[in-house]
Amino acid sequence: MKRIDALRPALPALVLAMLMVGCATKAPMQQGPVPPVAPAVEEPAAPALTPRMAAEAEMLTRMAAMQDRLYRVAAPLLINNAELCKSQARGLLGFTAKNRYSYPGEYNEAAHIAFGMGDRLQVTGVLAGSGAAHAGLRRGDRLVSAGGKPLPAGANASTLAGAVFGPLVTANPTLPMGVERDGANKQLTIPVTRACGFGIELGNADNFNSYADSTRVMVTRGMLSFTRDDDELAYLLASGMAHNILGHAAAQRNASTIGSIIDNLIAVKPDTSMLIGSGGIKPMPQELDAAADRLAVYLLARAGYNINDAAPFVKRLATTHPVTVLNGYVANHPATAFRVATIEKTVAEVKAKQDAKKPLLP
Q: Of 43, 15, 2, which is closest to residue 266 (Cα–Cα)?
């Protein structure tokens, strides 16, 4: 659900169209003339900087850095586990793009100051190992054309460009793209990569939690700061992915409740009253948590992360922010001892398969 006050640093409408589109077929892309250059867009001059605008720009910059970390850690989990995601695997180009209008209201000018954003969509992130990364797409590239069609600019650019990208990526294994870089036009051909089709979201709140609503995984900034390294963060993302793959939110009839929390927390200024008490989320039964933890260890190993960090992280989190902390991760996933035992058993199982050079399939 789209909110006028929502900043979508993880996956706005256009990003969903570009990053996770329907499964690509083997139909060849028609070869034609060089894609046309879209009409020049005159970008507005930067406004006079006020203290409030400077503070807003600084906040957006911090949020972008946190989102960058999420993308970087999520990339190998998404790309290397399409086999285990099964029906939830999609075609992936592997980049995100926004313009100043992706940031609503007062943050429109802040985005212009912080990122130099104007009317034309520009690349804000490229996932390592994706087709976009292999094609040489860079952060800051301005999007000009896709599949020979000029891409729009302005307030509705995300929605209109998403309508252009969707059919092209669904029907073709590669996508010709025209970008503007350093004042010059450049043509790229981006391969479509098979990957897990989950949105990765940053929650703009200080509670220590991570949420999965069947289609997305969210980590709050509080939880992000709690993780000591990328391996611990990867475990959180892998656990959320595993719950989504196994359909646990739907089975618990929690999907709409968790989805509402995610929709709220992606706002720049979320309504934190939704986090009072349990937030309406039912605790996950230990059997479902254990099943997700077992799958998560495999997802981690296949992505090249250190699986030894998972159990110690779960224990440290339960000690630091115990089950009595409402709307915290442990309150939603209370069976710590049972989960740790499952993780440790699965780690031993995965290591045995690695030593025997057997496929890492649960």
A: 2
